[in-house]
Amino acid sequence: MAGRGRNIRVSETSRPVLPRHARLKFDETRQVWVILAPERVLAPDDIAVEVLQLCDGVRSVADMVDGLAAKYAAERQAIATDVIAMLQDLADKGFLTEAREKTS
């Protein structure tokens, strides 16, 4: 793990957030959501966008999963597996980080 401190291990207790250098934005020209980062653009699918909009650094992954399972009346474990895998993939690519605890 040395040298890759910004990468996180996503679990239900994680509170993921887009890093300072990346932002989720709707591209009016292409009519798609994109994550903009220095020299990189990622166009996540609709489900990923919905999950990313929940990544505010306050909600835990467990909170997100609970909300999505209720919204879609789906099995919680299946949603948890998919959400964690998707968030881990984004974290591995540098598009997500862990919210820092507030010290004040």
Short description, anyone?
This protein is of the alpha+beta class and 104 residues long. It is built from three helices and five strands, in the order ββββαααβ.
Could you walk me through the main structural features you see in this protein, from its secondary elements to its overall organization?
By secondary structure, the protein is an alpha+beta fold. It has one domain: Arc Repressor Mutant, subunit A (Orthogonal Bundle). It is 35% helix and 17% strand. The strands form two sheets. A three-stranded antiparallel β-sheet has the order 2-3-4, with helices on one face. Strands 1-5 form a two-stranded antiparallel sheet. Strand 3 and strand 4 form a beta hairpin. The radius of gyration is 14 Å and the shape is globular. It starts with 15 loop residues before the first strand and ends in a 6-residue tail after the last strand. The relative contact order is 0.24.
